[in-house]
Design goal:
- The chain has helices spanning 2-19, 32-102.
- By secondary structure, the protein is mainly α.
- The protein starts with a helix and ends with a helix.
- 0% of the residues are buried.
- GO terms for molecular function: cholesterol transfer activity; high-density lipoprotein particle binding; lipid binding.
- Residues 1-18 form the signal peptide.
- It is found in: Secreted.
- This is Apolipoprotein A-II.
Length: 103
């Protein structure tokens, strides 16, 4: 029985060892100028591609905020007027109901 278990463990270890992917590490053979050129290339790509997208997102956010403020200024008086008229209507309905009950 022990031999069977030992054989199974050995088989599992061998199969796992074969499945492990060994990665080669990069040797730091690049010179300082290569590192700087790669850095500046990355920065230039960021400034030319990703930064304008972020600026556009901020611009859209600003325009949306301005639109919502304008809409709020326009609809607030209308909403107040509708609220007042609705409350008057409810008051009239309650008074009519009270008069009907009293009669």
């Amino acid at each position: 029985m022990k031999v069977l278990v030992l054989a199974m463990v050995l088989l599992c270890v061998c199969s796992l060892e074969g499945a492990v992917v060994k990665r080669d590490t990069e040797t730091p053979s690049s010179s300082l100028s290569d590192v700087f050129s790669q850095y500046f290339q990355t920065v230039s790509e960021y400034l030319s591609k990703q930064l304008p997208e972020k600026v556009k997102a901020e611009e859209i956010k600003t325009k949306t905020k301005a639109y919502l403020e304008q809409a709020n200024e326009q609809f607030l008086p209308i909403a107040k007027q509708l609220h007042t008229q609705f409350m008057d209507f409810l008051t009239q309905m309650v008074e009519t109901g009270k008069k009907a009950v009293q009669q």
